[in-house]
Design brief:
With 370 residues, the chain is of the alpha/beta class. It folds into two domains: 185 residues, Glycogen Phosphorylase B (Rossmann fold), CATH 3.40.50; 175 residues, Glycogen Phosphorylase B (Rossmann fold). The protein is 44% helix and 15% strand. It has 16 helices and 13 strands. Helix 6 runs parallel beside helix 12 and helix 6 packs across helix 16. Bound molecules: uridine-diphosphate-N-acetylglucosamine. The site of uridine-diphosphate-N-acetylglucosamine has 26 residues, from helix 1, helix 12 and helix 13. InterPro entries: GlcNAc_MurG, Glyco_trans_28_C, GlycoTrans_28_N.
Length: 370
Amino acid sequence: MKIIVSGGGTGGHIYPALAFIRTIKQKHPDTEFLYIGTSKGLESKLVTREEIPFKSIEITGFKRSISFENVKTVLRFLKGVKESRKIIREFKPDMVIGTGGYVCGPVVYAAAKENIPSIVHEQNSVPGLTNKFLSKYVDKVAICFESATGFFPKEKVVLTGNPRASEVAGIKKTDILARLGLTDLKPSVLIFGGSRGARPINEAVVASLESFAQKPYQVIYVTGDVHFDKVKKEAEAAGELKNVVITPFLHNMPEVLRSVDAVVSRAGATSIAEFTALGVPSLLIPSPYVTNNHQEKNARALVEKDAASLLLESELTSENLVRHIDQIVLDAEKKKRMSESAKQLGMPDATSRLYNVMLQLTGNRQAREK
Ligand SMILES: CC(=O)N[C@H]1[C@@H](OP(=O)(O)OP(=O)(O)OC[C@H]2O[C@@H](n3ccc(=O)[nH]c3=O)[C@H](O)[C@@H]2O)O[C@H](CO)[C@@H](O)[C@@H]1O
């Protein structure tokens, strides 16, 4: 089978696409993939790093307010559709899938116009503009939260979960803690602010370094690439680091998640799919700066089931951060309960479900997975 994948902008749209490609490549090595993204997006780095064939088109997102920029965006969209049609005609895919972010708009739209079976994958409980627009044209809309159903044409919706869940669920425990300079003998907490890092979380963590130095647990603290230099300087000024390692980005997140006792993070949908697939208890600090406050809705879906704790950014202080972490990590009963509840929400078979939807669409019955 030949598949075009498109998704970009942030890690939350790119990692599910990469996880899907890697998992399918392992099971069906003869599957050919082509990834279409933008040259400026994070995808150009992450995809080429994996040696997956990559082509770029030029496109920008819509502004929500009326502006001259939007006129230019429409023109770029039309140009993007033209470029995508050309790539599609050359590559001749059996299927096109978009995993969100504005780049997949013209690609998936072009696929539908070329009569190629198409799917969009929506990671969030509340969809973004691009996927809502595309849902009118595609054959299927794959979702991760039941609550997303109402935003799309009902007959097209399939609950598949997030392929990144399948990828992390298959990861074995490694010696990653030792490689990070940490020990196996203490509980470990991972702190990160989504794929790009989050300034408010960084500020609270830097203010907590002194407290962490006194704790019976250790912290892996990921700042986000762009924030690293500043945080490093502030941390150095705060004194000697104890119990904490600081790093700009983790390229081996699944391995790390497998080894930690709890995680503190934004409530991005792909991150949540990973925590639940592995049953990692989490303290979620939703970003209030996202469309329709969707991260808080993502987070509340876990909190309601006792799979996560919630700390709103408006209440994010060093004291509250440390207190919430202590409440999870230092209470073995609570940690176990949260872990079990999280795991019940996990969908480790997401990639197979998504692949089966594709096979149904392409009519490739023989290859259909049992
Ligand atoms: C600000 C914003 O618009 N955020 C959105 C974006 O978040 P964002 O891009 O932060 O997405 P997620 O939190 O869903 O996923 C982050 C991904 O990056 C990975 N990772 C992160 C840090 C690191 O050092 N290494 C690493 O590999 C995580 O393991 C995960 O796979 O897309 C998500 C999925 O559509 C949305 O739910 C978020 O609301």
